[in-house]
Amino acid sequence: MVNTYSFNIEREGIAPHRIDRRIAATVIDILRRFFEKVENAMIMVCDNTDGKQEKRRVLFNRWFDIYNDGTLSSRSAEVREGYYQLLVSIYFKNDNPNKQQLVRSFNEMMSRDIYEIIV
User: Fold this and answer.
1) Of 12, 82, 81, 84, which Cα lies nearest the Cα of 46?
2) pTM for the whole thing?
3) What SS3 class is residue 103?
4) Cβ neighbours of residue 103 closer than 8 Å, sequence gap 6 or more
5) Rounded CA separation 97/95 (Å)
């Protein structure tokens, strides 16, 4: 069995907010603890309801580049259907014993026409 989870960050309210470095520090701490279990893997879907999915992916990739100590790997994919864009990534430890299965399953999932399933 492969331990794969999703990760979600939601802000309270709809008012615009400034960039707060404490958010990154909090998210990174949560994920460090999560990945202490080598078998864990995380799938992240960038919310696209407000058209800011690309900004979310850029921000998370920046955090990954800054804070990854070399022990994590990721794969990313994009599904487009007209104006609909779905950005998905999977993160896992390099020494995850299920790494090949995770990558194979992720690639398989993203190569299917999953648009109908999501909507």
Assistant:
1) 84
2) 0.82
3) helix
4) 75, 90
5) 6
pLDDT in tens, 27-53: 889 999 999 999 999 998 887 878 888
How many residues are listed for the chain in this entry?
A: 119
Reduced to 3 DSSP states, what percent helix, strand and coil does the chain have, rounded to the nearest 5? 40, 25, 35
Can you tell me which residue has the tokens 């919310």? 47
Question: Edge-to-edge strands of the sheet including 84-93?
Answer: 3-6, 40-46, 84-93, 72-81
Question: CA-CA distance, 56 to 60, in Å (whole number)?
Answer: 6
The tens-digit pLDDT sequence of the chain (119 residues) is 678 888 777 777 777 777 778 888 888 899 999 999 999 999 988 878 788 888 889 988 998 998 999 999 999 998 877 777 888 999 999 999 999 999 999 988 888 765 444 43
Structure tokens at 85: 């864009």
Reported as half-sphere exposure (CB side, CA atoms, 13 A), residue 16 has a value of 2
